[in-house]
Amino acid sequence: MRWVTIGGFVLCGLLIVALVVQSHRRPDRIAPVGTLLDRVMTDRAARFTILLFWWWLGWHFLVTPPS
Amino acid sequence: MRAGWTGVLIITAVFHIVRGAPLDAAIYAVGAVVLIFDAFGWLRIPLRMPPDRDTVSRRVIAGTLIAVASLTLGVTHLYSPANTAIVVGLGVLLLPVAWADRSGTAPQPLTAVIRRTAVAWSIVIVFGCVWEIGVFFLGRDLTGSENAFPALSDLLDPLLAWPPARVVLVACWLLGGYALLRRGRPS
Is the N end or the C end of chain A the one with fewer CB atoms within 10 Å? Predict the structure, then answer.
C-alpha cells in the first residue's frame, strides 16, 4: 500500500505539472497560474487565507516536531 | 466568496483539533475569526499596498534575504528556538503586507478561461488535501500501518533532517511566498 499512497501524491504533482504545461500550450483554454493568482489575490480574504496556508507550511515543517 | 475562505479556515481548524494539534487549530481558528471580524467591519486597519515596482535592486534585496534565511534555517537545528523565532518573525512581517488594501488594483475580468482554470486548480488541490487527510487517518487508525500509509509529512521529514536538502526546501518555500505576495498588487 505504501507505493499506492506515494503514487497518489505523485499523481497530484503530475496534475499540477499538466496544468502548468497546458496553460503555456493553450492559454485560451487554461490561464497561466499567475493570471489566476492576480485575480484571486486582490481579494483580502483569499490573500489572507492563502498566505496563512503558505506560512503554516513553514510552521509545520520547521517549528513543530513530529508527534 | 469571503464566507468560502472563512469556511476553509474553519474546516482546517477542525481537522487539526481531530488530529490532536491544538496549536495549529488555534492558528486557523484565529484566522477565521479575523476574517469574520473584517466581514462585519469591526477591523479598520488603514493599510494600503503601494504599487509593485519590480526593480533589479528590490530583486537583489529579496534574493539576498531569502538566501540568508534559507541558509540560517538550514544550519540551525530543526525545531530549535531559532527556527521558531524566524518563522514567527516572518509571519509577523507578513501580516501587514497580507492585510493591506489592494482595492486600487483593476481585477482581471472573470472570464470563462479564468473560471475554468480556477475549477481545474481547485479539483487538483482538493484531491491532494483529501488524499493527505485519508492517508493520515489510515496511517494512524490502523495498527502498524503508518509505514503503509505515509502522510506527506512522513515522506518529507527525513529529507528535512538533512541540512543541504533543508536549505533547498526552505528556499523553495520562501520563493513561493515571495511570488504569492507580489500577485494582485497595483502596478
Answer: C
| ipTM over cut 0.90 | yes
Cβ contact, residue pair A8, B135, below 8 Å: yes
Residue matched to cell numbers 502548468: A20
**Predicted confidence (pLDDT) per residue in B111-153, tens digit:** 899 999 999 999 999 999 999 999 988 887 666 666 788 889 8
Residue B50 has what DSSP assignment? Answer: P
- Whether A67 and chain B come into contact, CB under 8 Å, resolves to yes
Q: Buried (b) or exposed (e) across B83-108, using 16+ Cβ within 10 A? A: beebbeebbeebbeebbbebeebeeb
Q: Is A44 on the interface with B (CB under 8 A)?
A: yes
- Rounded CA gap, A60 and A55, in Å? 9
Contact across the interface for B27 and A52, Cβ inside 8 Å: yes
